[in-house]
Design a protein that fits this description.
This protein has about 200 residues and is an alpha+beta fold. The protein has a single domain, classed as Jelly Rolls, CATH 2.60.120.10. About 30% of the residues lie in helices and about 25% in strands. It contains six helices and ten strands, in the order αββααββββββαββαα. Strands 3-10-5-8 form a four-stranded antiparallel sheet. Strands 4-9-6-7 form a four-stranded antiparallel sheet, with no helix packed on it. The longest helix has 16 residues, at about 145-160. The N and C termini lie far apart (about 45 Å).
């Protein structure tokens, strides 16, 4: 039964994305609506929003976003794997999570122009859909209630995920250890160094 739930979960995360013959990805309105920050939006708004996403591809070792840089877009990983890195007290990046097909990041950049809270590194060939802050703001101007709905959803997500961006090995909530998988931080022989 657990295996069935695992495969159902994978299917749910990967479903709703298509690629055309040129390799450009699209996201269905239903799939977009399954992302918590967009879950309460009207279907008409979701359909319009889905048209603003652009395809970006990243090769392994590519730094997709840099901690501390200005956030300017929201991303959905369509296919591939990305590693979330957070600088530790010693200034060295630590792996805190791995994002895979269907995961998303950068929603704060849609609502606020604030520095990125973590770095994201492609660890496999990865295709993402990105929504720029500029395109998002055009939609907000035409939908006055959109900003409040998204801020509520973002605050809820922040509360749910605030424990994920804790230093590796520290307890997520007092007694349990956070499982972030094997460390995937580049080594000196890798093409990208973060030291």
């Amino acid at each position: 039964m657990k295996r069935d739930n695992f495969y159902a979960s994978l299917w749910k995360k990967q479903n709703g994305f298509t690629f055309n013959v040129e390799g450009y990805a699209r996201v269905s309105p239903d799939r977009l609506r399954s992302i918590p920050i967009f879950g309460q939006l009207d279907l008409a708004v979701i359909k319009e929003l889905s048209e603003y996403f652009l395809t970006e591809t990243f090769e392994p070792g590519t730094l997709v976003i840099t901690e501390g840089a200005k956030g300017d877009k929201f991303n959905i990983a369509v296919r591939g794997r990305l590693q979330v890195l957070k600088k530790g007290p010693d200034g060295v990046n630590q792996a805190v999570a791995v994002l895979e097909d269907g995961d998303h990041f950068g929603e704060i950049a849609l609502l606020k122009s604030v520095p990125r809270t973590a770095s994201i590194l492609a660890i496999s060939h990865t295709s993402c859909l990105s929504l720029s802050h500029e395109h998002f703001m055009k939609l907000v101007e035409s939908q006055p209630d959109l900003m409040g709905t998204l801020e509520d959803a973002m605050n809820a997500r922040h509360q749910e995920t605030s424990q994920v961006i804790a230093p590796v090995g520290q307890a997520a909530s007092g007694s349990e250890q956070m499982d972030v998988g094997p460390p995937l931080v580049p080594t000196p022989q890798d093409p990208v160094s973060f030291r």
